[in-house]
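Q: What does the predicted 3D structure of Tyrosinase copper-binding domain-containing protein look like?
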Amino acid sequence: MVTQNYFLILFIKFILITIITHISSVNAQSDCSTAPSATLEKICRKLHQIDKNTRNTPLYEDKLRMPDGSIGAYALCGDLYSCMDLGCLCNFLGGNGTSGTNKCSFQNLKKAIRKEYRMLSDVERARFHAALNAMKRNGDYDMLSKIHSEFAETGGAHSGPAFLPWHREFIKRFEFSLKKVDPRISLPYWDSTLDGVLPTPKDSIMFSNEFMGTTDNAGNLIRGDFAGWRTLTATNILRHVGAEGNCFRERDIQWLMKQNKIDLVLGYPSPRQGCTAPSSFDTLEYTHNAIHTFVGGDMDEMKDSANDPIFFLHHCFVDMIWELWRIKNQNRNERKTVYPLDRLKCSARHHFVNSIMEPFEAIPNINGLCNEYTDNLYEYDPRPSCELGPNCGSK
């Protein structure tokens, strides 16, 4: 009898330990101290704070019902930014286009081919830099930067499943603003895996005068085509390249490509106790933030990050990684319909499937998955390979 009781007690202990271990694993991400690196722990704490802020912020739909009509100053509807094909965009750029198609009277307005930044020719890079400076002068750059600043820490832009679709729509609008200046321009991407394998990544050509510019000892951007830019807070662009963080690593991308659960792609980076969805510090919202930290300065603060033009090149690559995953792991119908479940213990309501992408009026989060983005507006040039030689295939 004693022996039976002894084994019964052991069995009960085993069951309890198993349950506790399971609960801990389900909720492990809620404890940022379990992060595998100091960088990821810092990112985790930021994302949890954003989740807290967002939960205390009314939904866009609720703001529309407020008596004072305080829906924000950036709702963009019925203008060129709402276009989802070149025919529509063409009409706003002064040409003759057929909405619902890619037909346009402008020969220069074609589907964008997004290349790696260093694969641009000297002429293409000069045009791109000139267009960025024109956007800075005409106010479009600061308008878009302010949108990101306003909603970076209190909306559906970060810390939940809407992260990728929100930024897809956001950089689409940025690319449209470039095309307002020069229809030939496509937004390039920055594949930072190329820099991460260098002996000293901060010495990459990315941070030279010919590309993204160089800084003084205090981190102020003082040389290059964007020297002298004033941020939303009237300061120089600030960087502390390589002081913390890291570039994308190939293993980060390959980990994502192997995932077949949407919860680990459009994930829940800041779940609360009781969230039963799988989570990981390897999800794209986490790994992409390490590059923000690597660049440092403005890029390391979510509300300030779009002050730096490198933000848009980095997020273009993030969007490319997501699109590569979609092509590899989903069929066309799944790409536009498969979204994580609405779970209040896993994310704020702002990330739910049909919540509006504030401040993009009338666009629910699910619409950020639609195929029209890459069917009509842009596609990605293949990633360069350094097997092609010391210059990785660039000129």
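A (community wiki): The structure tokens above were generated from the sequence. Strands lie at 112-114, 214-215, 221-223, 378-380. The radius of gyration is 23 Å.
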